[in-house]
Amino acid sequence: MGLYGVMRTSVSGMSAQSNKLSTVADNIANVNTVGYKRGDTQFSSLVLPSTNGAYNSGSVATNVRYAITDPGSTTFTTSKTDLAVNGNGYFLVSDSSGKIMLTRAGSFVPDSAGNLLNTAGYYLMGYSLANGAPTITANGTNGLTKVNITQMSLQAKPSTTATVSANLDVSAAVVVPSGPPGPANYTSKSSLITYDNVGRTVQLDIYAYKTGTDQWQIDVYDNAGSTGNTFPYTAASLLGSQTFTFDTSATGLGALAAASPTNITFTIPGGAPFTMDLSQMTQVAAPFSFTANVDGNAPSAIESVEIDDKGVVNAIFQNGTRLATYQLPLATVPSPDNLTPQVGNAYLVSSTSGNLQIDFPGQSGLGTIESGALEQSNADLASELTSMIEAQRGFTANSKVFQTGDDLLEVLVSLKR
Question: Could you report how far apart the first and last alpha carbons of the chain are, in Å?
Protein backbone atom coordinates (compact mmCIF):
# COMPACT_ATOMS: atom_id res chain seq x y z
CA MET A 1 0.00 0.00 0.00
CA GLY A 2 2.96 2.32 0.48
CA LEU A 3 2.39 5.82 1.80
CA TYR A 4 -1.38 5.63 1.46
CA GLY A 5 -1.34 2.54 3.65
CA VAL A 6 0.72 4.39 6.26
CA MET A 7 -1.84 7.19 6.36
CA ARG A 8 -4.79 4.79 6.59
CA THR A 9 -3.09 2.90 9.40
CA SER A 10 -2.47 6.11 11.34
CA VAL A 11 -6.13 7.11 10.85
CA SER A 12 -7.11 3.74 12.27
CA GLY A 13 -4.84 4.39 15.26
CA MET A 14 -6.32 7.84 15.86
CA SER A 15 -9.84 6.38 15.68
CA ALA A 16 -8.88 3.67 18.19
CA GLN A 17 -7.40 6.20 20.61
CA SER A 18 -10.55 8.32 20.21
CA ASN A 19 -12.62 5.29 21.28
CA LYS A 20 -10.37 4.84 24.27
CA LEU A 21 -10.83 8.50 25.20
CA SER A 22 -14.60 8.03 24.89
CA THR A 23 -14.66 5.20 27.45
CA VAL A 24 -12.34 7.18 29.73
CA ALA A 25 -14.71 10.16 29.49
CA ASP A 26 -17.67 7.93 30.40
CA ASN A 27 -15.79 6.46 33.35
CA ILE A 28 -14.78 9.87 34.69
CA ALA A 29 -18.30 11.26 34.23
CA ASN A 30 -19.73 8.29 36.19
CA VAL A 31 -17.08 8.04 38.88
CA ASN A 32 -19.79 8.83 41.49
CA THR A 33 -22.66 6.96 39.82
CA VAL A 34 -24.14 4.21 42.01
CA GLY A 35 -23.60 0.75 40.54
CA TYR A 36 -21.67 1.97 37.48
CA LYS A 37 -19.29 -0.52 35.87
CA ARG A 38 -16.29 0.97 34.09
CA GLY A 39 -15.69 0.42 30.39
CA ASP A 40 -12.30 -0.39 28.92
CA THR A 41 -11.29 -0.10 25.25
CA GLN A 42 -9.10 -3.02 24.21
CA PHE A 43 -7.03 -3.01 21.03
CA SER A 44 -6.37 -5.80 18.55
CA SER A 45 -4.22 -5.63 15.40
CA LEU A 46 -5.26 -6.30 11.84
CA VAL A 47 -2.26 -7.67 9.88
CA LEU A 48 -2.39 -7.58 6.08
CA PRO A 49 -0.44 -10.04 3.84
CA SER A 50 3.04 -8.77 3.00
CA THR A 51 5.97 -9.91 0.86
CA ASN A 52 9.68 -9.66 1.42
CA GLY A 53 9.84 -6.67 -0.87
CA ALA A 54 6.71 -4.80 0.26
CA TYR A 55 5.13 -4.42 3.68
CA ASN A 56 1.43 -3.69 3.85
CA SER A 57 0.62 -1.80 7.03
CA GLY A 58 -2.56 -2.98 8.65
CA SER A 59 -4.78 -1.26 11.22
CA VAL A 60 -6.07 -1.56 14.76
CA ALA A 61 -9.53 -2.61 15.88
CA THR A 62 -11.17 -1.80 19.21
CA ASN A 63 -13.46 -3.76 21.46
CA VAL A 64 -15.13 -2.25 24.53
CA ARG A 65 -15.34 -4.50 27.58
CA TYR A 66 -17.18 -3.65 30.79
CA ALA A 67 -15.85 -4.69 34.21
CA ILE A 68 -19.28 -5.90 35.33
CA THR A 69 -17.94 -8.55 37.72
CA ASP A 70 -15.62 -6.04 39.43
CA PRO A 71 -17.48 -4.78 42.55
CA GLY A 72 -17.33 -1.18 43.65
CA SER A 73 -16.83 -0.04 47.22
CA THR A 74 -19.81 -0.07 49.59
CA THR A 75 -21.04 3.05 51.34
CA PHE A 76 -23.71 3.14 54.04
CA THR A 77 -26.80 5.33 54.03
CA THR A 78 -29.76 6.09 56.29
CA SER A 79 -32.38 4.69 53.90
CA LYS A 80 -33.52 1.12 54.47
CA THR A 81 -34.52 0.80 50.81
CA ASP A 82 -30.97 1.47 49.63
CA LEU A 83 -29.65 -1.99 48.80
CA ALA A 84 -26.27 -3.50 47.98
CA VAL A 85 -25.25 -7.06 47.07
CA ASN A 86 -22.51 -8.62 49.17
CA GLY A 87 -20.94 -11.09 46.77
CA ASN A 88 -22.21 -12.54 43.53
CA GLY A 89 -25.53 -11.58 41.98
CA TYR A 90 -27.66 -8.78 40.55
CA PHE A 91 -31.03 -7.26 41.40
CA LEU A 92 -33.84 -7.93 38.94
CA VAL A 93 -35.50 -4.74 37.71
CA SER A 94 -37.96 -3.83 34.97
CA ASP A 95 -38.65 -0.75 32.89
CA SER A 96 -42.10 0.73 32.30
CA SER A 97 -42.72 -1.77 29.48
CA GLY A 98 -42.01 -4.76 31.73
CA LYS A 99 -38.62 -5.71 30.24
CA ILE A 100 -36.57 -7.51 32.93
CA MET A 101 -32.93 -6.48 33.39
CA LEU A 102 -30.09 -6.96 35.87
CA THR A 103 -28.42 -4.21 37.90
CA ARG A 104 -26.25 -3.51 40.94
CA ALA A 105 -27.65 0.04 41.26
CA GLY A 106 -29.74 -0.36 44.41
CA SER A 107 -30.77 3.20 45.28
CA PHE A 108 -34.50 2.47 45.49
CA VAL A 109 -37.23 4.84 46.69
CA PRO A 110 -41.03 4.46 46.51
CA ASP A 111 -42.84 6.23 43.69
CA SER A 112 -46.29 7.80 44.02
CA ALA A 113 -47.89 4.33 43.96
CA GLY A 114 -45.45 2.84 46.49
CA ASN A 115 -43.43 0.80 43.99
CA LEU A 116 -39.68 0.79 44.66
CA LEU A 117 -37.90 2.65 41.85
CA ASN A 118 -34.17 3.34 41.43
CA THR A 119 -32.58 6.53 40.11
CA ALA A 120 -32.52 5.14 36.56
CA GLY A 121 -36.30 4.66 36.62
CA TYR A 122 -36.28 0.87 36.93
CA TYR A 123 -38.68 -1.00 39.25
CA LEU A 124 -37.36 -3.51 41.77
CA MET A 125 -38.85 -6.96 41.16
CA GLY A 126 -39.56 -9.66 43.74
CA TYR A 127 -41.89 -12.49 44.70
CA SER A 128 -45.06 -11.71 46.66
CA LEU A 129 -45.51 -13.63 49.93
CA ALA A 130 -49.26 -12.95 50.08
CA ASN A 131 -50.00 -16.60 49.22
CA GLY A 132 -47.12 -18.18 51.11
CA ALA A 133 -43.59 -19.09 50.14
CA PRO A 134 -42.96 -18.53 46.41
CA THR A 135 -41.69 -21.05 43.89
CA ILE A 136 -38.75 -19.82 41.84
CA THR A 137 -38.37 -20.49 38.14
CA ALA A 138 -34.60 -21.02 38.13
CA ASN A 139 -34.06 -19.91 34.53
CA GLY A 140 -37.02 -17.57 34.03
CA THR A 141 -38.77 -14.53 35.46
CA ASN A 142 -42.24 -16.04 35.92
CA GLY A 143 -43.99 -14.85 39.07
CA LEU A 144 -41.94 -11.68 39.56
CA THR A 145 -43.88 -8.55 40.47
CA LYS A 146 -43.07 -4.97 41.38
CA VAL A 147 -42.14 -4.57 45.05
CA ASN A 148 -44.65 -2.22 46.67
CA ILE A 149 -44.14 -1.02 50.24
CA THR A 150 -47.50 0.74 50.81
CA GLN A 151 -50.18 -1.53 49.34
CA MET A 152 -50.53 -3.50 52.61
CA SER A 153 -51.69 -0.43 54.52
CA LEU A 154 -54.92 -0.69 56.52
CA GLN A 155 -55.41 -4.40 55.84
CA ALA A 156 -56.47 -6.63 58.71
CA LYS A 157 -55.73 -10.34 59.02
CA PRO A 158 -57.56 -12.55 61.54
CA SER A 159 -55.53 -14.70 63.90
CA THR A 160 -55.61 -18.44 63.21
CA THR A 161 -52.60 -19.92 65.02
CA ALA A 162 -50.56 -19.46 68.18
CA THR A 163 -47.36 -21.41 68.73
CA VAL A 164 -46.80 -21.67 72.46
CA SER A 165 -43.68 -22.40 74.48
CA ALA A 166 -44.66 -22.98 78.11
CA ASN A 167 -43.65 -24.74 81.31
CA LEU A 168 -45.95 -25.85 84.13
CA ASP A 169 -44.35 -26.20 87.54
CA VAL A 170 -44.26 -29.89 88.49
CA SER A 171 -44.14 -28.89 92.17
CA ALA A 172 -47.45 -27.02 92.08
CA ALA A 173 -50.24 -28.20 94.34
CA VAL A 174 -53.28 -29.99 92.96
CA VAL A 175 -56.35 -27.73 92.69
CA VAL A 176 -59.98 -28.19 91.73
CA PRO A 177 -61.02 -25.99 88.77
CA SER A 178 -63.90 -23.65 89.47
CA GLY A 179 -65.33 -22.23 86.29
CA PRO A 180 -67.68 -19.34 85.62
CA PRO A 181 -69.56 -17.66 87.10
CA GLY A 182 -68.12 -18.61 90.50
CA PRO A 183 -64.74 -17.64 91.99
CA ALA A 184 -61.57 -18.99 90.39
CA ASN A 185 -59.24 -21.54 91.86
CA TYR A 186 -56.36 -21.92 89.38
CA THR A 187 -52.64 -22.62 89.39
CA SER A 188 -51.28 -20.19 86.78
CA LYS A 189 -52.58 -17.59 84.35
CA SER A 190 -51.42 -15.81 81.19
CA SER A 191 -53.03 -13.89 78.30
CA LEU A 192 -52.74 -13.55 74.51
CA ILE A 193 -53.77 -10.79 72.12
CA THR A 194 -55.45 -12.03 68.93
CA TYR A 195 -57.39 -10.34 66.12
CA ASP A 196 -60.90 -10.91 64.74
CA ASN A 197 -62.00 -10.65 61.10
CA VAL A 198 -61.99 -6.85 61.04
CA GLY A 199 -58.80 -6.40 63.04
CA ARG A 200 -60.25 -5.77 66.50
CA THR A 201 -58.16 -7.11 69.35
CA VAL A 202 -59.52 -10.06 71.29
CA GLN A 203 -57.73 -10.83 74.56
CA LEU A 204 -57.63 -14.48 75.51
CA ASP A 205 -57.17 -15.31 79.20
CA ILE A 206 -55.50 -18.69 79.70
CA TYR A 207 -55.83 -20.56 83.00
CA ALA A 208 -53.86 -23.69 83.96
CA TYR A 209 -55.07 -26.04 86.70
CA LYS A 210 -53.08 -28.93 88.09
CA THR A 211 -55.80 -31.53 88.50
CA GLY A 212 -53.66 -34.52 89.42
CA THR A 213 -50.19 -36.03 89.22
CA ASP A 214 -48.75 -35.12 85.80
CA GLN A 215 -52.16 -33.93 84.71
CA TRP A 216 -53.23 -30.37 83.89
CA GLN A 217 -56.40 -28.73 82.60
CA ILE A 218 -56.07 -25.58 80.48
CA ASP A 219 -59.07 -23.30 79.89
CA VAL A 220 -59.22 -20.38 77.46
CA TYR A 221 -61.64 -17.49 78.14
CA ASP A 222 -62.69 -14.41 76.21
CA ASN A 223 -61.51 -11.54 78.39
CA ALA A 224 -64.51 -9.43 77.27
CA GLY A 225 -66.75 -11.64 79.39
CA SER A 226 -64.75 -11.17 82.60
CA THR A 227 -65.06 -8.86 85.55
CA GLY A 228 -61.91 -6.84 86.09
CA ASN A 229 -59.76 -9.16 83.90
CA THR A 230 -60.43 -12.13 86.15
CA PHE A 231 -63.24 -14.30 87.48
CA PRO A 232 -66.16 -14.37 87.32
CA TYR A 233 -66.62 -14.87 83.56
CA THR A 234 -69.90 -15.35 81.74
CA ALA A 235 -70.69 -18.92 80.74
CA ALA A 236 -70.28 -18.06 77.03
CA SER A 237 -66.77 -16.75 77.64
CA LEU A 238 -65.25 -20.23 77.93
CA LEU A 239 -63.86 -20.73 74.39
CA GLY A 240 -61.92 -23.96 74.83
CA SER A 241 -60.74 -26.47 77.41
CA GLN A 242 -58.38 -29.43 77.26
CA THR A 243 -56.70 -31.84 79.68
CA PHE A 244 -53.00 -32.61 79.13
CA THR A 245 -50.83 -35.34 80.61
CA PHE A 246 -47.05 -35.38 80.95
CA ASP A 247 -44.40 -38.07 80.90
CA THR A 248 -41.94 -37.55 83.76
CA SER A 249 -40.07 -40.80 83.19
CA ALA A 250 -36.42 -41.03 82.21
CA THR A 251 -37.44 -41.05 78.57
CA GLY A 252 -40.20 -38.41 78.75
CA LEU A 253 -38.27 -35.81 80.78
CA GLY A 254 -41.38 -33.77 81.46
CA ALA A 255 -42.68 -33.48 77.90
CA LEU A 256 -46.25 -34.19 76.88
CA ALA A 257 -47.14 -37.87 77.03
CA ALA A 258 -47.58 -39.68 73.75
CA ALA A 259 -51.34 -40.09 74.29
CA SER A 260 -51.86 -36.48 75.40
CA PRO A 261 -53.55 -33.87 73.22
CA THR A 262 -51.18 -31.23 71.84
CA ASN A 263 -53.47 -28.30 71.06
CA ILE A 264 -56.68 -26.49 71.87
CA THR A 265 -58.95 -25.51 68.98
CA PHE A 266 -61.80 -22.98 69.11
CA THR A 267 -63.22 -19.99 67.22
CA ILE A 268 -62.23 -16.46 68.18
CA PRO A 269 -65.32 -14.29 68.80
CA GLY A 270 -65.99 -12.45 65.55
CA GLY A 271 -62.95 -14.12 64.02
CA ALA A 272 -61.62 -17.29 62.46
CA PRO A 273 -61.07 -20.85 63.76
CA PHE A 274 -58.01 -20.72 65.99
CA THR A 275 -55.50 -23.40 67.02
CA MET A 276 -53.26 -23.00 70.04
CA ASP A 277 -50.30 -25.31 69.48
CA LEU A 278 -49.03 -26.56 72.88
CA SER A 279 -46.91 -29.44 71.60
CA GLN A 280 -43.75 -27.89 73.07
CA MET A 281 -45.22 -27.48 76.55
CA THR A 282 -43.30 -29.11 79.44
CA GLN A 283 -43.78 -29.90 83.13
CA VAL A 284 -40.46 -29.65 84.95
CA ALA A 285 -39.21 -28.29 88.26
CA ALA A 286 -39.11 -24.65 87.14
CA PRO A 287 -41.44 -21.66 87.58
CA PHE A 288 -44.43 -21.17 85.31
CA SER A 289 -43.56 -19.57 81.96
CA PHE A 290 -45.67 -18.84 78.91
CA THR A 291 -44.62 -17.27 75.59
CA ALA A 292 -46.36 -17.41 72.25
CA ASN A 293 -46.13 -16.29 68.64
CA VAL A 294 -49.54 -15.32 67.31
CA ASP A 295 -50.33 -14.57 63.66
CA GLY A 296 -52.78 -11.96 62.41
CA ASN A 297 -52.71 -8.19 62.61
CA ALA A 298 -54.92 -5.19 63.18
CA PRO A 299 -55.60 -2.63 60.41
CA SER A 300 -52.77 -0.16 60.47
CA ALA A 301 -50.73 1.96 58.10
CA ILE A 302 -47.20 0.88 57.24
CA GLU A 303 -44.70 2.94 59.18
CA SER A 304 -41.49 1.58 57.68
CA VAL A 305 -39.95 -1.40 55.94
CA GLU A 306 -36.99 -3.61 56.74
CA ILE A 307 -35.15 -5.85 54.29
CA ASP A 308 -33.03 -8.66 55.70
CA ASP A 309 -29.96 -10.32 54.19
CA LYS A 310 -32.11 -13.06 52.63
CA GLY A 311 -34.12 -10.47 50.71
CA VAL A 312 -37.32 -10.70 52.79
CA VAL A 313 -39.16 -7.37 52.79
CA ASN A 314 -40.90 -6.86 56.16
CA ALA A 315 -43.59 -4.22 56.55
CA ILE A 316 -43.56 -2.59 60.00
CA PHE A 317 -47.02 -1.31 60.88
CA GLN A 318 -47.77 1.60 63.19
CA ASN A 319 -49.15 -0.79 65.80
CA GLY A 320 -45.83 -2.68 65.88
CA THR A 321 -46.95 -5.65 63.77
CA ARG A 322 -44.37 -7.09 61.35
CA LEU A 323 -45.50 -8.73 58.13
CA ALA A 324 -43.31 -10.34 55.44
CA THR A 325 -44.65 -9.03 52.13
CA TYR A 326 -42.05 -9.84 49.45
CA GLN A 327 -38.83 -11.76 48.97
CA LEU A 328 -36.17 -10.41 46.63
CA PRO A 329 -34.29 -12.86 44.39
CA LEU A 330 -30.85 -12.35 42.90
CA ALA A 331 -29.80 -13.33 39.40
CA THR A 332 -26.57 -14.13 37.62
CA VAL A 333 -25.26 -15.55 34.33
CA PRO A 334 -22.22 -17.74 33.58
CA SER A 335 -20.31 -14.81 31.99
CA PRO A 336 -21.49 -11.49 33.50
CA ASP A 337 -18.85 -9.42 31.66
CA ASN A 338 -20.61 -10.33 28.41
CA LEU A 339 -23.97 -8.89 29.46
CA THR A 340 -25.31 -6.16 27.19
CA PRO A 341 -25.23 -2.74 28.91
CA GLN A 342 -28.37 -0.61 28.89
CA VAL A 343 -29.09 2.97 29.92
CA GLY A 344 -29.13 3.37 33.70
CA ASN A 345 -26.47 0.81 34.69
CA ALA A 346 -28.69 -2.14 33.82
CA TYR A 347 -27.84 -5.19 31.71
CA LEU A 348 -29.61 -7.59 29.40
CA VAL A 349 -28.77 -11.25 28.90
CA SER A 350 -26.88 -11.81 25.64
CA SER A 351 -25.97 -14.84 23.55
CA THR A 352 -22.42 -14.75 24.94
CA SER A 353 -23.32 -14.17 28.60
CA GLY A 354 -25.16 -17.46 29.03
CA ASN A 355 -28.64 -18.13 30.38
CA LEU A 356 -30.23 -16.34 33.32
CA GLN A 357 -30.02 -18.13 36.70
CA ILE A 358 -32.25 -16.99 39.60
CA ASP A 359 -32.36 -17.97 43.28
CA PHE A 360 -32.73 -16.38 46.70
CA PRO A 361 -29.80 -14.55 48.35
CA GLY A 362 -27.33 -16.87 50.04
CA GLN A 363 -28.22 -19.84 47.83
CA SER A 364 -26.66 -21.34 44.67
CA GLY A 365 -23.48 -19.33 45.10
CA LEU A 366 -25.28 -15.98 45.27
CA GLY A 367 -24.37 -13.26 47.75
CA THR A 368 -26.56 -11.65 50.39
CA ILE A 369 -28.40 -8.33 50.48
CA GLU A 370 -27.35 -5.47 52.71
CA SER A 371 -29.99 -2.86 53.52
CA GLY A 372 -28.95 0.75 54.06
CA ALA A 373 -25.95 0.44 51.74
CA LEU A 374 -25.05 1.26 48.14
CA GLU A 375 -22.40 -0.08 45.78
CA GLN A 376 -20.40 2.78 44.30
CA SER A 377 -18.85 3.03 40.83
CA ASN A 378 -15.83 0.78 40.26
CA ALA A 379 -14.14 3.50 38.15
CA ASP A 380 -10.98 4.85 39.79
CA LEU A 381 -10.31 8.49 38.98
CA ALA A 382 -6.50 8.22 39.17
CA SER A 383 -6.45 5.22 36.81
CA GLU A 384 -8.78 6.95 34.36
CA LEU A 385 -6.62 10.09 34.26
CA THR A 386 -3.60 7.91 33.55
CA SER A 387 -5.48 6.17 30.72
CA MET A 388 -6.50 9.55 29.36
CA ILE A 389 -2.86 10.64 29.14
CA GLU A 390 -1.95 7.38 27.42
CA ALA A 391 -4.73 7.83 24.86
CA GLN A 392 -3.75 11.44 24.28
CA ARG A 393 -0.12 10.50 23.63
CA GLY A 394 -1.18 7.64 21.37
CA PHE A 395 -3.46 9.90 19.34
CA THR A 396 -0.70 12.52 18.99
CA ALA A 397 1.82 9.90 17.85
CA ASN A 398 -0.58 8.55 15.23
CA SER A 399 -1.27 12.05 13.98
CA LYS A 400 2.50 12.55 13.57
CA VAL A 401 2.66 9.39 11.44
CA PHE A 402 -0.19 10.73 9.30
CA GLN A 403 1.57 14.09 9.00
CA THR A 404 4.83 12.39 8.02
CA GLY A 405 3.06 10.32 5.35
CA ASP A 406 1.46 13.48 4.00
CA ASP A 407 4.87 15.24 3.90
CA LEU A 408 6.40 12.31 2.02
CA LEU A 409 3.55 12.34 -0.51
CA GLU A 410 4.15 16.00 -1.03
CA VAL A 411 7.83 15.30 -1.71
CA LEU A 412 6.81 12.54 -4.13
CA VAL A 413 4.43 14.82 -5.99
CA SER A 414 7.06 17.56 -6.18
CA LEU A 415 9.34 15.21 -8.17
CA LYS A 416 7.00 15.72 -11.16
CA ARG A 417 7.86 19.44 -11.33
Answer: 24
